[in-house]
Amino acid sequence: MLYFSCDYAEGCHPKVLEALSKTNMVSTPGYGEDEFCRQAKAKIRDYINCPDADIYFLVGGTQTNQVVIDSMLSNYDGVVAAATGHVAVHEAGAIEYSGHKVITIPGHEGKIDATELKQMLVDHYADDSAEHMVNPGMVYISYPTEYGTLYSRDELEAVSSICKEYNIPLFIDGARLAYGLAAQDDLSMEDIASYADVFYIGGTKVGALFGEAIVFTKGNTPKHMITQIKQHGALLAKGRLLGVQFDALFTDDLYMQMGKNAILHANTIREDLKKKGYHLYMENPTNQIFVVMENSKLEALKKEVSYGFWEKYDEAHTVIRIATSWATENASVEALKKIL
């Protein structure tokens, strides 16, 4: 069976596993108060050229999104996101569970439009009954988006400027950050840090066994952050396990090397699909490929290939997702091409 259903099917990069094994019997303080975490944070600060950034390591993406949003918002605030945004669709109501409404606006191939965001905020505050409504207290975007698309520098700058105008934080979900950055040469992680008030560097989907790194970039870290993380059940006692992994990810540019591997193989598959006349549901440059397939062909395909269901296209067709990752190998890609 070929596995192209997601980008976290394997365990972790061998260098991450080696680092975990090598440090396995080292005794350290708990809860991330160890030298491995301090060293990893220092490497990230250097990488994004943000020496004053506050960094916290958590285990998974849903947990990270909930902790960031809940800790930064007041109890009367909601978070603005694209209707297709992860926090609006695939978080099992985790954001609402913490007491914050997800305020959706249209998504355009997964992206929010700065003009529409501005108009939504203008309309909200012009409403005489605004005090009776959920206050838009944060803007959430994903990079890459849930459809594998990317914001350009101009688009990010426009959204960031509106957030600054209204004094609300911009939160960038970077669960697949390495894949987004590797798919273009217009933006760096340093740029992401400059536009976002808070973002996170995804490890779970990019070569770590588990883990995400939250980065507060503007001196706006919520008070008692460790306490709030623990209240959410998100404080790992053996926090050193996260530090060790991110230290490895940010050594010798491993994080971006893994991103490039996924993009290289995704482009090969994408071009092969086009040559064979397949209909791509949406064009994007990252590691997620969305293909419209006849339902009759899917029955045969799923016997040999693990793919991701995305949505129904019509009665006879389904949109599926083929995802490459840090672990994708040439042999698997060639085998997939033969099956297709």
Automatic annotation (TrEMBL):
Record's Pfam families? Answer: Beta_elim_lyase
Q: Does the keyword Oxidoreductase apply?
A: no
Top-level taxon of the source organism:
Bacteria
Give the record's GO biological process terms. Answer: amino acid metabolic process
InterPro entries in the record, alphabetically? ArAA_b-elim_lyase/Thr_aldolase, PyrdxlP-dep_Trfase, PyrdxlP-dep_Trfase_major, PyrdxlP-dep_Trfase_small
Cofactor(s) required, per the database record: pyridoxal 5'-phosphate
Question: Taking every annotated instance into account, which residue ranges of this chain make up the domain Aromatic amino acid beta-eliminating lyase/threonine aldolase?
Answer: 16-294
Where does this protein have coiled-coil stretches?
none
Sorted keywords for this record are: Pyridoxal phosphate
For molecular function, the Gene Ontology terms on record are: lyase activity
UniProt similarity note: Belongs to the threonine aldolase family.
> Which PANTHER family does the annotation name?
L-THREONINE ALDOLASE-RELATED, LOW SPECIFICITY L-THREONINE ALDOLASE
Q: What is this protein called?
A: Low specificity L-threonine aldolase
